[in-house]
Amino acid sequence: MMYSRYSRLVNLQRKEDSRGSVIENCVSENTDTRGENLTRVDTGHLVGAVKVEDKADQAIRGQEEDSISLPGSGLQPDEICRDASLDQLWDRLCNPPTKCCSLLKRHLTPELLVLLRDRITEFGGRLEDCIRSGCENTDSGVGVYASDPDAYTVFAPLLDAVIKDYHKVSELNHPNPDLGDIAKLDFGDLDPSGNLIVSTRVRVGRSHDSYGFPPVLTKEDRVEMEKKSQEALNKLDGELKGSYYPLSGMSKETQKQLTEDHFLFNDSDRFLRAAGGYRDWPTGRGIYFNDNKTFLVWVNEEDHLRFISMQKGGNLKEVYARLVKAIRALESSGLSFAKREGLGYLTFCPSNLGTTLRASVHIKIPKLAATPDFKAFCDKYNIQARGIHGEHTESVGGVYDISNKRRLGLTEISAIQEMRRGVEAVIAEEKRLGGGN
């Protein structure tokens, strides 16, 4: 693979910046990504997925939860910093128009700027490609995107520091992938009564290992990736069998149906736009879902691929097993995904890498949520509670989104088990307090 070189240079670079730090108070404690949240929306017998605002970057994006940008709407990237030089970006970061306490601001020192400014990745990525969004949007929480998989090697002195800070780890020693044996899972339906859990979802992100990320992609790259992805998706069978819907040339009837199902992703995130995420919109983008609408794939949204398994109720075993089957089937179909020793699977935003896995339930817990120690209770189990419309939103009808906190430093099956134990503890405590009826 083009980027797969684990040279002595990286080890030296990492030793150069071994500083451990804690994110400042103005940066969210959330360990989830700034925009990957999918909120399940009950639509009759369906469970839809819709992109919502995760305010982990402490930002107001001005996007409605149900806003949909249909193919052809084509919001163009902001021009504030798109053509700015590295020195101009640095000047804006040093003299921000808004309060700036991003991880980029914290870790990009003058010394690192000198060290990294002339480096170029195997995909043609430069430092300015990684920091452009954070310099344009100085109210970012993270402020850094990787220009491509090789950026995690070439710009390791900066990205390693950001990753450690965001994920709250002192070392980057992520284990090898382990999805577990789905035939021997020791859990099933976490809420057999159906009184508490409304729906369950597990998702992961994946990147093709032979392509860069949005800042360095061409229109031709996106079209090639879409073609390869579609060819692999078309090979899925059984319960994973479905249809692919490219955003380019999508009919009004299909647009209407996918809008009603809350399946269409949009092009309205200013952070992603500044990073080049919407260039050539909507070319090369599309959505795949199975016939039962319990397995969904986003192609070239933020990451190259986003796999989502979901359904009503609390059967985590079924949801996770479906996702694992899909991952293994797509890997065996010829797709090869970018990963790096010590970092796991690589994604556009460093907040997502590692397992890239987020497992969550929407659950009715009004009694527990009303207690003053609710957050501390969740922290004890390494889970996170939020409103169903994303980070820092309010609960609706006592329903909360409960998910695993940790993505980096543990295996996929460990992350699922951690989430499972946390949800079981939440259910037990809610019942102890008189809820769950």
TrEMBL record:
It holds the Pfam family ATP-gua_Ptrans. One of its GO terms (molecular function) is ATP binding. One of its GO terms (biological process) is phosphocreatine biosynthetic process. One of its GO terms (cellular component) is extracellular space. Residues 196-433 form the Phosphagen kinase C-terminal domain. The keyword ATP-binding applies. InterPro entries: ATP-guanido_PTrfase, ATP-guanido_PTrfase_AS, ATP-guanido_PTrfase_cat, ATP-guanido_PTrfase_N, ATP-guanido_PTrfase_N_sf, Gln_synth/guanido_kin_cat_dom. ATP binds at residues 199-203, 262, 306, 358-362, 386-391. Residues 85-168 form the Phosphagen kinase N-terminal domain. Keywords: ATP-binding, Kinase, Nucleotide-binding, Transferase. CDD domains: arginine_kinase_like. Belongs to the ATP:guanido phosphotransferase family. PANTHER family: ARGININE KINASE 1-RELATED (PTHR11547:SF38), ARGININE OR CREATINE KINASE (PTHR11547). This is Arginine kinase.
